[in-house]
Structure to design on (614 residues):
């Protein structure tokens, strides 16, 4: 693969910037802060994209760092490259609101899906990590990152066993361990215990709700309450009617000043007595003989008094007895006078009694008969009226007795209604309790069903974990056999390169399984930490190149990108490295530099290159 050209619409400081690359060496020259690292990052972003961080991490991430300075321009660009005889154009929009990727195969004239298969084919399966640690050498970053250690082990293990990078034993083992951990985290250890507990609770609740007390008597109680209330309402209505009738009857008796049969009979007796007195007084007052007799007595008294006066006055001479006779005649005169007066007073008394009794009996007749006429018929009518009052009083007393009986029945029905209400409340409480138990029973059954699924899932997960353990055991056995030959390919490839890149100072190197690097001398293995920084930089370059070759295999070489990577090289080391690169690497090389010595050395060694000034 090789890069053809790029166009930046908006990326960091660049806006509407075009750059064309050629085969072989491409030297991008610019002073510090000219934008070399920006171009380097743009190429990587076009190949792998740039994700924006979240939260505080977004303040200093690549997305924010290379946000276009000119806000009017879009955060986007395109990169044209050639691979396998086909020219493809990658267009990316980095903006979070319009993020998009389009790939056009210009050779075939069609759009290609920007999927993993395309990038694996273009980049020989390189991930962004391996890209950053092999063919893309950033400023002062010749050493590999720690993440490269495990990835190199995968490459060596895969190439050593199958000759292909499709098989990734170490990554597969890590994946299986991760899957095992995920499966173990999914297992619910308390499911079986909870399942047993819930089954016991279900049996207990089923026994409780089967008890007779939970038999639903609510409808029967409500029917009984309804019947009692109907009877109570009927009795109350009858009692109310009876009360009204009694009240009316008592009002009649009270208006006639009667409070019972005795008072009525006493009143009748009194009326009969008054009527008898009336009749007696009337009969007595109607006797004329008493008046005549009184008159006779007055006449006799006057005659006797006259004779007495005459004898006393001597008008009637009777010898010597005239005075005695006159005195004796005074006594009958007085007697006749007193008799007349008595008879006259007795007549007046009878008349007064008649008036009094007549007034009383008229008042009685007028009150009860509406007519004050005095007669025997009226008296008979009064007697009949009193008999009616007596019958009314008897009826009232019977009604009052009936009312008292009804009150007793009403009180009994009220107690029965209260008992029904209490029973209904108890039934409602029992039904509420039953509903709660049924809800709990339903919940427990649902939980049991869910736990049964969990238990089944636990069994399935344990079976999968057992299978993963078996797979890991098998892979461990395979990995053990691979580990014995680990690093052979890497050591061989790196050693082939080290002599050329160091100018023959070192002829071979060794890399152990932890990527610890040793330089081979005739007497001992020298750790890389003991060599000079310039030599160390050369060795890391050789290691990167070795890894790049292992990754690319027989595929088309990928471009090598150097971003001020030779700062620690002296002129001689730089000359050796550039000459070695020109002879050993057939692919494209892009060198970003702020020094002119790379250009001078390439000119002096007659190494062709394409210069790009920014």
């Amino acid at each position: 693969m090789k890069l053809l050209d790029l166009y930046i619409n908006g990326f960091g400081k660049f806006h509407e910037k075009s750059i064309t690359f050629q085969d072989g060496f491409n030297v991008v020259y610019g002073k510090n802060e000219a934008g070399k690292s920006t171009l380097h990052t743009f190429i990587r972003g076009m190949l792998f994209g740039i994700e924006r961080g979240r939260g505080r991490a977004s303040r200093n991430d690549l997305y924010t760092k290379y946000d276009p300075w000119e806000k009017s321009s879009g955060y986007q660009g395109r990169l044209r490259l050639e691979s396998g005889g086909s020219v493809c154009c990658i267009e990316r929009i980095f903006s979070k609101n319009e993020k998009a990727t389009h790939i056009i195969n210009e050779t075939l004239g069609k759009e290609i899906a920007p999927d993993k298969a395309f990038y694996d084919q273009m980049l020989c399966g390189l991930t962004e990590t391996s890209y950053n640690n092999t063919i893309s050498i950033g400023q002062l970053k010749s050493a590999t990152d720690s993440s490269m250690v495990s990835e190199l082990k995968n490459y060596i293990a895969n190439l050593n066993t199958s000759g292909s990078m499709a098989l990734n034993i170490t990554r597969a083992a890590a994946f299986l361990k991760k899957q095992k951990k995920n499966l173990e985290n999914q297992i619910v250890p308390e499911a079986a215990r909870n399942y047993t507990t819930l089954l016991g609770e279900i049996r207990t609740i089923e026994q409780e709700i089967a008890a007779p007390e939970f038999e639903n008597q609510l409808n029967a109680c409500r029917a009984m309450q309804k019947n009692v209330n109907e009877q109570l309402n009927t009795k109350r209505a009858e009692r109310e009617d009876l009360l009204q009738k009694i009240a009316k009857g008592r009002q009649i008796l009270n208006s006639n000043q009667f409070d019972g049969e005795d008072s009525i009979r006493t009143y009748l007796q009194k009326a009969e007595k008054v009527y008898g007195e009336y009749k007696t007084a009337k009969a007595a007052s109607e006797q004329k003989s008493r008046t005549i007799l009184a008159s006779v007595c007055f006449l006799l008294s006057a005659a006797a008094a006259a004779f007495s006066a005459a004898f006393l006055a001597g008008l009637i001479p009777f010898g010597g007895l005239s005075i005695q006779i006159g005195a004796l005649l005074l006594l009958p005169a007085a007697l006749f006078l007193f008799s007349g007066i008595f008879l006259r007073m007795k007549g007046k008394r009878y008349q007064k009694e008649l008036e009094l009794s007549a007034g009383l009996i008229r008042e009685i007749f007028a009150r009860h008969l509406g007519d004050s006429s005095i007669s025997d018929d009226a008296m008979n009518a009064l007697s009949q009226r009193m008999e009616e009052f007596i019958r009314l009083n008897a009826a009232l007393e019977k009604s009052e007795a009936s009312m008292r009986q009804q009150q007793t029945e009403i009180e009994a029905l009220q107690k029965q209604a209260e008992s029904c209400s209490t029973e209904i409340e108890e039934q409602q409480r029992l039904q509420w309790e039953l509903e709660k138990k049924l809800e709990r029973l339903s919940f427990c059954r649902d939980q049991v069903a869910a736990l049964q699924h969990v238990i089944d899932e636990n069994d399935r997960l344990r079976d999968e974990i057992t299978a993963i353990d078996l797979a890991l055991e098998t892979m461990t056995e395979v990995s053990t056999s691979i580990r014995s030959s680990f690093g052979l390919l890497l050591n061989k490839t790196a050693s082939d390169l080290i002599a050329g890149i160091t100018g023959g100072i070192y002829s071979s190197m060794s890399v152990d399984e932890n990527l610890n690097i040793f330089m081979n001398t005739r007497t001992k293995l020298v750790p890389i930490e003991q060599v000079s920084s310039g030599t160390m930089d050369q060795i890391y370059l050789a290691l990167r190149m070795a890894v790049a070759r292992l990754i690319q295999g027989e595929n088309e070489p990928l471009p090598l990108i150097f971003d001020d990577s030779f700062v620690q090289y002296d002129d001689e080391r730089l000359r050796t490295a550039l000459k070695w690169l020109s002879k050993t690497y057939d692919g494209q090389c892009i060198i970003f530099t702020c020094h002119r010595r790379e250009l001078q050395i390439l000119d002096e060694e007659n190494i062709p290159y394409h210069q790009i000034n920014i």
